[in-house]
Amino acid sequence: MMIAIVQEKYTDALIDRFLDEDIYVTRLSSTGGFFKAGNTTLLLGCKESEIDQIYEIFKEETEAEDVHMEEGDFKVSGATIFVVDLEDSKRI
Q1: Do 26 and 41 form a contact (C-beta atoms < 8 A)?
Q2: Model-level pTM?
Q3: Nearest Cα to 26, choosing from 49, 60, 2?
Q4: What pLDDT, in 10s, does the model give residues 50-74?
Q5: Is 16 strand, coil or helix?
Q6: CATH architecture entry for 2-83
Q7: What Cα–Cα distance (Å) separates residue 65 from each residue in 4, 76, 78?
């Protein structure tokens, strides 16, 4: 299972790509911490053999950007991705 925190502006394109590739995805609205920006959390049920393909989709559809604020300059990623091993998963 992959959990990805994605900048909201990339969400629709990512979901479209995942659906085109027959990769299951669930969308959850969320809000970022420090920048309080609109984010989306994506939950992706995937096989280990699909992880590299999913990483490539994220690389193609998102990008990091520089943010200039009064507090300083920051690099904000387009997506932060966590991979979690699941012992079992059922669709009911």
Answers
A1: no
A2: 0.83
A3: 2
A4: 999 999 999 999 998 888 878 788 8
A5: helix
A6: 2-Layer Sandwich (3.30)
A7: 17, 5, 7
- Determine the Cα–Cα distance for residues 11 and 25; give it in Å rounded to an integer: 11
| Other Cβ atoms closer than 10 A to 32 | 14
Identity of the amino acid at 35: F
Residue 64, token pair as written in the block: 């990091």
- Structure tokens belonging to residue 42: 């994506």
User: How far apart are alpha carbons 14 and 49 in whole angstroms?
Assistant: 19
Residue with tokens 């991979």: 83
- Across the chain, mean pLDDT equals 88
DSSP classification of residue 70 = T
Where exactly are the structural domains of the chain? 2-83
Structural Rg of the chain based on CA atoms: 14
